[in-house]
Amino acid sequence: MADRPLATLTARLAAALARHGERPIAVTPGRDAPDRPLTARAALEQSARFAAGLAALGVRPGEPVLLWSENREQWLIAELALLWLGAPGVPRGAEAPADEIAYIVDKVRARVAIVEKPELLRRFAAAGHQVEQLVLLTGSDPTGRALPFEQCLARGDATTAARLLADAPTARRPADVATIVFTSGTTGRPKGVVLTQANLAANLTQVLSIIDFVPAGATGLSILPPWHMFERMVEYALIELGVQFVYTDRRHFAKDLARFRPAVLPAVPRLWMAIEEGVRAKLAHAPPRQRAIVETALARCIARQKGRRFAGAPRPSPLSAPLDWLLQRLVLRKIAVALGVDRLADGLPISGGGSLPEHVDLFFAALGVPLMNGYGLTETSPVLALRRSRHPRGGTVGAPLPETEIAIRRLEDGAPQPVGARGVIHARGPQVMGGYFEEPAATARVRSADGWFDTGDLGHLDAHGELSITGRAKETIVLLSGENVEPEPLENALTASSWIAQALVVGQDQKQLGALLVPRLPHDTAALPRAELEALLRREVDARVAPAAGFRPHERIGRIALLDEPFTVENGGLSQTLKIKRHAMLERHAARIAELYRDGGDSAS
Length: 605
Known about the structure:
Largest sheet: 5 strands, parallel
Distance between the termini: 68 Å
Strand order of the largest sheet: 4-3-5-6-7
Strand content: 15-25%
Shape: globular
CATH superfamily of one domain: ANL, N-terminal domain
Number of helices: 19
Radius of gyration: 25 Å
CATH architecture of one domain: 3-Layer(aba) Sandwich
Oligomer: single chain
């Protein structure tokens, strides 16, 4: 009988790092120098010394510590150190605004803050918040207030480090808080999700039961922010498997993807979409004959994949299968190799953290890279369901993980819904949080006494037990007719157009829907007169959201407005996981939306 998995995350990671020894687990690419690999043994030794250094600063078990940084080697060392200490890490990405950081520090009463770089120190100081001790992961602090990373390591004496590392696996208990992760704040103040050692260890076991086929020594690419539980859980799994992950960022992503050709890539839908957009933008400027060959191959292979994956879609003739297979191998595989995604075909191309548009899903399937589409929330450690790449069903996020229950309940009264009927998704399992940090009322609103968590997402289960996500309960648009509309599927359909980069569907308490559109930049839109561009986008909207495309008559988009500025993290339009911050953008563009409906909004212009 196989041994039961260790009950705490700390014990799991300590055992895995000791087991892998000299195997590299993380790589920092050298932009102007050789790559810098970090072995499992070095990670253990440095994190133990860093933990001893933090202990010398007075950090004690159970004490929350802010960790404000992007994903990098020092972040990993710091997180491991906090796990050895039993001090819950409170992570946030570097793009988080200073006032949000000040709110979080106040909320958890952090005495110590670990900060990535001097720029963040300045933002921290500008917010006017004081902590007792700052630790700086990179660079130096001219004021001398922050303790540099190397000095914190030096403060950790070898005896204390060895004791912490030896004691950590048994000193931590399953009920101990491992981390407090504040939600991304797409609406209102973020809430602190309290995740225990048992929550994270359970989810790690669940995930590994599905992805344990990735061989030790393979390479993954790490681009998501480190506070995102999707990224963190994948990294925990890779540490257990002995897979090294390469740190990258949005600036270097395309080059690192082509250079390292990873077997593992966890990414949000917007990043998968960006890869597709890059291919199509290059294709638009390719020689006509080459473009025709690639477009034909894509169209045929996408149609074949759609017929295989989606119920009701036309199934291509078996007679055309040999030609389609040849086109995929001789044409589309070359694109996959050039992009650096070819090894993902037998690895882990995982999409999570948002709804995966159908056209993006089918594009990668046509390249021979079937995406593993997953679903979960910070509150669920995070994974609840994961679509297996070998038997994908289009439009689903797969079946629930082992030991995970999913129930669909009616929005109005919580009544159970039958198979195929839409409702609010509720989940129960060992990975579900106990509650929000010091917010019992908010916890009670989403978690029942018997452990069921109200996700706030809408979806349905099919006859195979696989889950589909259809929207957010709080984002549902209610028209004056009483019809309920989920904006996300419409927005996904609009951004499938090569002319539409971003879309925000509106229409609450109106007769008809409208949309704010950001034209796609690869096209030379500046060369088009405004009226011509608007007319072109009008045709695209009418073609993409129409009964022929599966939409209902009341989902038709009435008036549209073009935005000159895209939604970005910097202007508050996107969360740090690249989701549109809907409520913030509705407020910001209230005047434009009002113009759409000034005289009733019934026209289609």
